[in-house]
Specification:
With 88 residues, the chain is mostly helical. The chain is built from 5 helices and 3 strands, in the order E-H-H-H-H-H-E-E.
Length: 88
């Protein structure tokens, strides 16, 4: 079976960025990533790789594990083939 995974990093990234009163430009500078890439992630057009997750977490002043916990707080964070998968 071929699964399509869509993890909503974008919504969480935007929320955490705004909670810290950071613009996309400021987060880009802090994380050494391009502002347009952050915009693509926030709009769920791109999914960040492991190194980008580390960089974004650092730019937000948190550990990558803390960033992942924030994503997992939403019980509907993972969608597989159009169906929501709930995790505990």
């Amino acid at each position: 079976m071929d699964y399509h995974w869509n993890i909503d990093f974008g919504m969480t990234l935007r929320r955490l960025r705004k909670e810290r009163n950071l613009s996309q430009e400021e987060l880009a500078e802090r994380s050494c990533l391009d502002r347009s890439y952050i915009s693509l992630i926030e709009r769920n057009i791109k999914q960040p790789g492991f190194i980008s997750i580390l960089a974004l977490a650092s730019g937000l002043g948190m550990r990558a594990s803390e960033f992942m916990i924030e994503i997992e707080k939403d019980p509907e964070f993972l969608q597989i083939n159009g169906y929501w998968s709930f995790t505990k």
